[in-house]
UniProtKB/TrEMBL annotation:
<feature type="signal peptide">
    <location>
        <begin position="1"/>
        <end position="26"/>
    </location>
</feature>
<dbReference type="InterPro" id="IPR029058">
    <property type="entry name" value="AB_hydrolase_fold"/>
</dbReference>
<dbReference type="Pfam" id="PF02450">
    <property type="entry name" value="LCAT"/>
</dbReference>
<keyword id="KW-0732">Signal</keyword>
<dbReference type="InterPro" id="IPR003386">
    <property type="entry name" value="LACT/PDAT_acylTrfase"/>
</dbReference>
<protein>
    <recommendedName>
        <fullName>Phospholipid--sterol O-acyltransferase</fullName>
    </recommendedName>
</protein>
Length: 608
C-alpha cells in the first residue's frame, strides 16, 4: 500500500519545491504574488517543467500497416517509446521517427507528434518492466504529490525534441505556446513560476528568452520576466555543448535501444536538433539580432561570427582537449562510402592500403562548420549536417545557440549538475572499411576523471583537464560554465556536504551553483537521495526563521516513509529516533513496514 505523509508534514512542506528557489524579497518591493509585507507568497508559485532530449513521448498521427508484423501503428499509438513495436517492426518504427534531413518534414507514410501534459514526460514506455526503466520525471512528480503540491501548480511543456528551435516555432508555434503557459500559470495561481529545465530543455528555455525579446517591447521585457518567472533551475545543462553529440553524429548512439549504431546514426542525423548540443567555443560569439532589430540595421543572410584572442592563443577552445581526431581515408567520393547495395562491387583495398591523414578539430571548428567541410568528400551525412548547421543555427534569425550563454535576466538562477564521474571529452575516429552509415569506427576515447585525462586503455593524455570531471554525459567545463554567472565571491555548494554556504549574488540577482557528487546526467531528476539533500538545503535557505548554519549530514533525519528501512544487523527499523515498525495490510517485506513516527514531523524545524 502507498505510504502517506502526516498532514502536519504536508503543511510544513506544501511549498517546499515551489519555494525552493525563492529568497526573501522584502528589498525587491511589492507586486503581484507577494504578501503585504513584501515577501513572496509561496502558495501562489507554479512549477513549469521543460524536459530534455528524448524525454518526451512521441505518438503516431497516422495509420501505418506494418507488413510481416502483427503490430501496426494507429493514431495516438506510442512511437517513442514503444519497445515492443521497435523489436517487432523496426522498419515501420523508423518511418514514424525519421524526418527529412533538409526540410524536416515527416516520412510520407507516418508522422509523429509529442504528447502533452505531465503524462508525456513521466514514463516514456509505461509498463510493469519497461516503465521503471524509462522513468524520467515520475519520481520528481511523486515527491511533489507526497508533499502536498496542488495538481494545477505543476505544468509540463513537452516538445518535439527532433526539431531545431526555429522549426519548433515554425511547425508547432512552441514558443508562443510556452509564453501562454507562463501567462496561464500566472492567472491560475496569482504568482510567478519556477522553471525546471533538464539537459536540452535548458537550450530550449534559453532560446525562448531570446525569442521573447522580439515579441515584447524592450521596456516591458524585464517586467514580463519578473512577473511570470521567479526562478530558473538549470539541471544538467550542457551550457557549452555535450561531447557525446559528436559520437552520435559520426558513429551512432543507441541510448540503450535494441538497434544497431548505424541505424541510430541514420535516425539521429535526420533530426535538425542533432546539432543543438554540439560543443562550441567559449570564446566565440555571433552578433545579436535583438539590437539589429531596434537599430534598424538590415538583416544579412549571414551573421558575423567573431572570436576573442584567447581562442587562438590557447588550445582546444576552452575544452580539455581536441574533440575529434580523425583519419581521413585516401580515397574520395564514391569509394569512400559505398552504399550497402554497392559494397560487393566496391574495391576496398585502396582504402586499406592508402596512407590516411589524421586531422584534429576543436570545439570552434565543430560549431562553425569547419569539420563538416573537411570530411564532405568522405561522408554523405556531412553535407546534410552542414546545411542544417548553417540554416538552423549559425543563421538562425533569433539566436545562434552554439555561442556562450550569458546569465539569464531572471531574479534567481540555480545551476545544478553532477560531478566526479568518468566523462568522454574527445574521440579518435578512423575509416571502418564498411559502407555508410557504419563507415567510421571509434579507435580511442579520451575521458576526464579525477582531474586528469585518460585514454580508453588507461594511458594519461595531455590537455587541459578541469578540477574535476562531469556527469558521464556532459563534460565539467560545459556544466560549470554557469560559474561565470557568479559575482566576485564564488562559493560552490556541494551536496552531500557538511554544511550550507550561500553563493554570491550579482547586483539585484541571485545565482547559486550546486555540484552533486556522482550524480548521473540522465538520472539526476529521479534520484531520491540527491533530491532529498537538495530540498533540505533549500528548505533551510528559504525559510524566514532560519538562523543557524545548515545542520551536518550526521544530523539529517528521514523526511518520508520511504526513507525508513529495515536494519537487518540490528533487527529493527533504522533511524530509531525517527522511524518505527508499523505494519499496514499489504506490506510485503519488513522495510515496507518501517514508517515515520507520528511525532517526528517536527524534525524539519531542526534544519532551521
Amino acid at each position: 500500500m502507498a505510504k502517506k505523509p502526516p498532514l502536519m508534514r504536508a503543511h510544513l512542506l506544501i511549498g517546499l519545491i515551489l519555494a525552493a528557489a525563492a529568497v526573501a524579497v522584502a528589498t525587491e518591493g511589492g507586486g503581484s504574488g507577494e504578501s503585504g509585507d513584501g515577501e513572496l507568497d509561496y502558495k501562489k508559485l507554479s512549477g513549469i517543467i521543460i524536459p530534455g532530449f528524448a524525454s518526451t513521448q512521441l505518438r503516431a498521427w497516422s495509420i501505418l500497416d506494418c507488413p510481416f508484423s502483427p503490430l501496426d501503428f494507429n493514431p495516438l499509438d506510442l512511437v517513442w517509446l514503444d519497445t515492443t513495436k521497435l523489436l517487432s517492426a523496426v522498419n515501420c518504427w523508423l518511418k514514424c521517427m525519421l524526418l527529412d534531413p533538409y526540410n524536416q518534414t515527416d516520412h510520407p507514410d507516418c508522422k509523429s507528434r509529442p504528447d502533452s501534459g505531465l503524462s508525456g514526460i513521466t514514463e516514456l514506455d509505461p509498463g510493469y518492466i519497461t516503465g521503471p526503466l524509462s522513468s524520467v520525471w515520475k519520481e520528481w512528480i511523486k515527491w511533489c504529490i507526497e508533499f502536498g503540491i496542488e495538481a494545477n501548480a505543476i505544468m509540463a511543456v513537452p516538445y518535439d525534441w527532433r526539431l531545431s528551435p526555429s522549426m519548433l516555432e515554425e511547425r508547432d508555434l512552441y514558443f508562443h505556446k510556452l509564453k501562454l503557459t507562463f501567462e496561464t500559470a500566472y492567472k491560475l495561481r496569482g504568482g510567478p513560476s519556477l522553471v525546471f529545465a533538464h539537459s536540452l530543455g535548458n537550450h530550449v528555455f534559453r532560446y525562448f528568452l531570446e525569442w521573447l525579446k522580439l515579441e515584447i517591447a524592450p521596456k516591458h521585457y524585464i517586467q514580463w520576466l519578473d512577473q511570470h518567472i521567479h526562478a530558473y533551475f538549470a539541471v544538467g545543462a550542457p551550457l557549452l555543448g555535450a561531447t557525446e553529440t559528436v559520437e552520435a553524429t559520426l558513429s551512432g548512439f543507441t541510448f540503450g535501444l535494441p538497434i544497431s549504431e548505424g541505424t541510430a546514426r541514420l535516425m539521429f542525423n535526420s533530426f535538425s536538433s542533432s546539432l543543438w548540443m554540439m560543443p562550441f567555443s567559449k570564446y566565440c560569439r555571433s552578433d545579436s539580432n535583438y539590437w539589429k532589430h531596434f537599430s534598424g540595421a538590415r538583416h544579412s543572410g549571414n551573421k558575423t561570427y567573431h572570436c576573442e584572442g584567447n581562442e587562438f592563443q590557447s588550445n582546444f577552445s576552452g575544452w580539455p582537449t581536441n574533440l575529434i581526431n580523425i583519419e581521413i581515408p585516401s580515397t574520395h567520393g564514391f569509394d569512400a562510402y559505398p552504399s550497402i547495395t554497392e559494397i560487393p562491387q566496391s574495391n576496398l583495398s585502396s582504402m586499406e592500403c592508402g596512407i590516411p591523414t589524421q586531422l584534429s578539430f576543436s570545439a570552434r571548428e565543430m560549431s562553425d562548420g569547419t569539420f563538416f567541410k573537411a570530411i564532405e568528400d568522405y561522408d554523405p551525412d556531412s553535407k546534410r549536417l552542414l546545411y542544417q548547421l548553417e540554416k538552423s543555427y549559425i543563421n538562425d534569425p533569433v539566436l545562434n545557440p552554439l555561442t556562450p550563454w550569458d546569465r539569464p535576466p531572471i531574479k534567481n538562477v540555480f545551476c545544478i549538475y553532477g560531478t566526479d564521474s568518468k566523462t568522454k571529452v574527445g574521440y579518435y575516429f578512423a575509416p571502418s572499411g564498411k559502407p555508410y552509415p557504419d563507415n567510421w569506427i571509434i579507435t580511442d576515447i579520451v575521458y576526464e576523471f579525477e582531474g586528469s585525462l585518460y585514454s580508453r586503455s588507461g594511458n594519461l593524455v595531455e590537455g587541459n583537464p578541469g578540477a574535476t570531471s562531469g556527469d558521464e554525459t556532459v563534460p565539467y567545463n560545459s556544466l560549470a560554465w554557469c560559474k561565470s554567472w557568479l559575482g566576485s565571491k564564488v562559493n560552490i555548494t556541494r551536496a552531500p556536504q557538511s554544511e550550507h554556504d550561500d553563493s554570491e549574488s550579482l547586483p539585484g540577482k541571485r545565482t547559486a551553483v550546486w555540484e552533486l557528487d556522482k550524480a548521473n546526467h540522465r538520472n539526476i531528476v529521479r534520484s531520491p537521495v540527491l533530491m532529498r539533500e537538495l530540498w533540505l538545503e533549500m528548505w533551510h535557505d528559504v525559510h524566514p526563521d532560519a538562523k543557524g548554519k545548515f545542520v551536518t549530514k550526521a544530523k539529517r533525519g528521514p523526511l518520508r516513509d520511504d526513507d525508513c528501512y529495515w536494519d537487518y544487523g540490528k533487527a529493527r527499523c533504522a533511524w530509531a529516533d525517527y522511524c518505527e515498525y508499523r505494519y499496514v495490510f499489504g506490506d510485503v517485506h519488513l522495510g515496507q513496514s518501517c514508517r515515520l513516527k507520528s511525532t517526528s514531523t517536527d524534525q524539519l524545524l531542526n534544519y532551521l
